[in-house]
Amino acid sequence: MINQLLFVSFLFLTNGVGLFEQYYPLADEIAKSMSLQQKIGQTLQVDITSFNDEQGNTHYEQISQHFLGSILVGGNGCPDGRGNIIASDNCFQATNANWRDVAQRSLKQKVVVNVPGHGETQINLLLGTDAVHGNQHSVGAVLFPHNIGLAASHNVENYIKAAYWTKQSILDCGFNFAFAPTVAVSHNPKWGRFYETQGADPKFVKEIGRAYIKELQEDDGKKIKGVLGSTKHYFGDGATYNGYDEGNCRVENFDVFYNNNIQGYIGALEANTGTIMVSYSAINELPMSISDLINVDLKQQQKFDGFIISDYNAAIKVAYQGLPTTHAKMSIEDAYTKSFNSGMDMQMVDGAVGWYEEVMNNIIGQGRISTERLNDAVKRILAVKLAMNLIDVPETLAKKYNYTQEKKEEKVEKQEVSNDDNDAEYYDALRSAKESLVLLKNKQNLLPINKFKITNVILLGERLWSFKNEFKRVFQDFDNIGAQNGGWTIRWQGFNGNDYWSNDLKVSSKASSILDAIKSRFNSANIYYIQYSDPTNLQLINEQRNNFRNNIINTLDQFNRENTLIINTLAENPYAEFMGDIDCEYCKTQDKQGCIYNNWINQYLPDEQPTTLEINVGDYEKQIINIIRQKDVDIPVVTILFSGRPMIITNPLQVSSAFVAAWWPGTAGGEAVVQSLFGEYLFKSQGKLNTLPVPWMRNMQQISNYPIYGNEVPQIEDPLFEEGFGLETRPQNIQ
């Protein structure tokens, strides 16, 4: 009964009309009063960096010159502190204050439409930004665990809190449109976006979609008070064969495929999601960007009354890319025609607005996209804007349609945030991180450890980074907040290291590495790790490693199983989208047709795409562990894995006394991990907290040629750990 009531209250108003549909008549009159160029402009969302000149100055006037409906911040865009948006590795100026400046400059650019008999109507912008695990484009932000970690908590309240704080931060930046949530069902960990998925239980994914959109958009049945959401990526993006990003779903039984992968969208629709973003992927080689399912399923069957938006340059990919999505290619005119006629209302593009306008004018002039279809797209976009108070409607026109105009301030004001709010956001992120951890091994109930008996903490876990055979630096993953956050952190592919979590940025984000959390509990004289004088000098690194090894040998007598703890940290490099794909067949051919991996995009990754998810304890770390265990073979080793997905962990499991899958837990991840080790947080204290949201495979063979949808939902057979697995810890006398 409760779910039925929620459905009625979310999807329909008392008169049986949807949240956005109630504004269709007014939106339609405005749309029909627009020129063709204004209509085309409203169907565009453009990367704002495309408005930059050669000197890096952003020409905001191009927004109104092209009558744009929306702009977005690309994955690597950030403000320069002088009012411009740049695509750069240096994003230290990406503060909320500087984002507000960008928003203010953008919102001054309005589209003016003269509605006959009523006068000027001013249409404002939708300002879009990614929000994969918080407002991650903003430096100093508190960031939550990625979705796969939140899914391990099985706690919808964590999603609601993530949506709430994301909304608050985006509003503080002056933006109003978030590309979230992803509601993909998890399938193959070889996919580079696996960490964006929500686990293998479609019922839970439906609940997440509903709860997140409800909190993010905060609608009252008439207006959206919060941030416009974009539920993505419609649909089946998490189910591509072999986990190829932008790949193809192999489907023999469509009903089984549909019922398992659509649930997140149903939940989001129940909460009045304003937009749905369409996937790059294909079903049986028909790209979703040109699939009739957009019209037939979403708009007709599901009665979706918001607007549909493409992913970045989606029609261009349909036209020119081919594999890994499909073997077919087509002209750009055909791609845009098919995309619009399938139900796509807004196209997300990187730039080249003039070229897009020319293509659209030609298509429309040839009658390939009807006036009725174009008007419908614009009407839907304007209806969403009316629900967001983004259109200044003349009084007589508003009165005609009984539209309540809520005047917004011209200037984007800073949101007042108290110290209590900052603390609350941090503790919500910390709770989410703790509840996302999964204990996979706990030999002889090692955890929780009595920290009052520990006098020696040895921290291990390093990676040597090279690019194009040139050594760059060493990263210590026990002190690597970037590695705790993974991709979509500050920039598209993320960062290793602590550069963006130092000094004032560390204070505002309250970010903590494992080292930070250990230092807050132990005297520095009792913490053993290498303190490199120059992490970029390989010769010095090797010398200091030798010195550390000798120091361990010289102090062996003081180590034993009662007073010593070795914490060994393993981590994936940060990555996003196709750069995280593993073992793609197209990357193994000589011409690499269909391989979109390119490590110039992510220089932390190797030249050639990896072919395995195996992760091992490093040779140096093995040396230190073996030396210490020569003294006492039972000195405990606790391994922490920071990753965006299950990995092949045969080797580290054997070495470890306890093993924690920490996923990518966000800025509070270090503190969360250490609390769990010492019993300040107990694993699996209630319900399904701290349990796997997906099965954990044993080897790569189990996820090869997978998934294929037949008459049953595909499953990984005989996994190392079943979905729902997670060990618990119980309180001990640790005083």
Mean of the pLDDT scores?
95
Query: Sheet bearing the most strands, described?
Result: 8 strands, parallel
Strands of the widest sheet, in order across it, are: 14-11-9-8-7-2-1-15
Helix fraction, binned, reads: 25-40%
**Number of DSSP helices?**
24
What is the molecular shape? globular
The poorly predicted ranges are: 1-15
Going by helix content, strand content and strand pairing, the class is alpha/beta
State the total count of DSSP E strands. Answer: 25
Please state roughly what percent of the residues sit in beta strands, choosing from under 5%, 5-15%, 15-25%, 25-35%, 35-45% or over 45%: 5-15%
Pfam family, one: Glyco_hydro_3_C
EC number: 3.2.1.21
Organism: Paramecium primaurelia
Keywords: Glycosidase, Hydrolase, Signal
Describe this protein's structure.
By secondary structure, the chain is an alpha/beta fold. 33% of the residues lie in helices and 14% in strands. The strands form 6 sheets. Strands 14-11-9-8-7-2-1-15 form an 8-stranded parallel β-sheet. Strand 3 (77-79) and strand 4 (85-87) form a beta hairpin. Helix 6 packs across helix 17.
